[in-house]
Amino acid sequence: MAPQLKLRDFFLASLLLCSSSAAPLSSNINGPPSATGSLYGSEALLGDDGAGIDTADSAIVSNYDEAPGQKDDADLGLYLDFTKLSNPQPLRGSKGATDPGPRNYRYDAINSDALAPPGTDNGDVPQAKWPLGLSHNRLGLQGAGWARQQNEAVLPIATDMAGVDMRLAPHAYRELHWHKANEWSLMLNGSVRIQAMNENGETFVDDLNAGDVWFFPSGVPHSIQAFDEGCEFLLVFDDGSFSEEGTFLASELIQRNPKEVIAKNLQTDVSALDDIPDGQLYIFNGTPAPHNISAQNVTGPAGYLPVSDSYSYHFSQQDPYTVDAGTVKIIDPTTFPIASKFSAALVTVKPGAMREIHWHPTSDEWNFFISGSGRVTAFDAPEASRTFDFQAGDVGYIPVPQSHYVENVGTEDLVFLEVLQSDKFTDISMNQWLSLTPPQIIEDTLHLPAKVVAAIPKWKQYIVPGSVDLTETNFTAATST
User: Fold this and answer.
1) pLDDT for 86-96, tens place per residue?
2) Which residue of the set 356, 365, 407, 418 is catalytic?
3) Helix, strand or coil for residue 7?
4) Cα gap 75→97, rounded to integer Å
């Protein structure tokens, strides 16, 4: 046995010697003959080789410009327009340092408050923004349309609501279907015909244009068909985990049951099922809907859905509440009774103006930005805040009861949607709260001058004016012109 042990020890020592050699193993042991070099370095590279530093490799950035307001005190938190800079830097006031890269300059340019946050940002606030441009797009059949979604898989903070942006080409259908979640929709472009039947056998059909709203309760089967110019619409569901992939489709309903069962249910011969679809239709092209809506007004013994339970609301025809700095339109079960727990505000803010600081006492807020650009600071107790920048096509989400504002930082009107899970659209205005609290309490607590406290309006403003000069800091006589 002893000689065998010695032979084994010699073999192990030889392997150890080979592995400790300064020369690395060749990389082409299992590679093509043309391969050169090595996959690994040698042990000689460990530690300090005493070779000194490479002065040619510099992290100094000297060729950059700064945006207006970037040198000002960080706590002022002025909006920094990086879209006109070729090499924006994470600097604000005396804080930060340059970034030599690697970087995505396009992301940095449209997210200046992430790259160079206001000095008032603090602590940890979860991500509250999801650009739908980053969502996977599911394409319909033969150019019929597409759909992309946001849910808690991509925006984990959004636990109570999810959204879908859907496009239908002229005459295309969103296949007959139903959902486990309630569906609330705002038409963005074009026009559609919607059709549904409820559990009582009451039917409904209506034509909607851009700006109109529909609502289908969970389980109610319905269809959507675009008219001649096609359409695009926004869908909001009362379940943060909602996925379009979980939709109950008519085509799948037929395909996932035995043909004998379907034939028996329809009281027909099984041969009638020879041409049923093979796979999902989802979004597909169809024949044009008759422009005379009465041609598709099919009713049974239960008749037509009562107007009080209508699945649509012609929100486009509602006149807005208008102030100098913008407009607000509110829809909730007060005027749209069937849409239980869905309340929404469509807000337009003029350049430089701001949807005032507020919070919602009973619901999270789901946002969709329709046009323009804005920014939001979400404040969470006790001392955390984070500022986000939004552009058209972005989704925002603010958990209850975080305070926030929406400031128009662009040169065109900012239009966005606020959606709540509430039977009435409610919010608490910071300004109204301060104005309706005894002045002594406000002055003792916040040390605001008495004349400032006295000048705060006692009504809810919704939108406060500002200045198109985003470096302005005196709003005593603010304008939004």
Assistant:
1) 999 999 999 99
2) 418
3) helix
4) 17
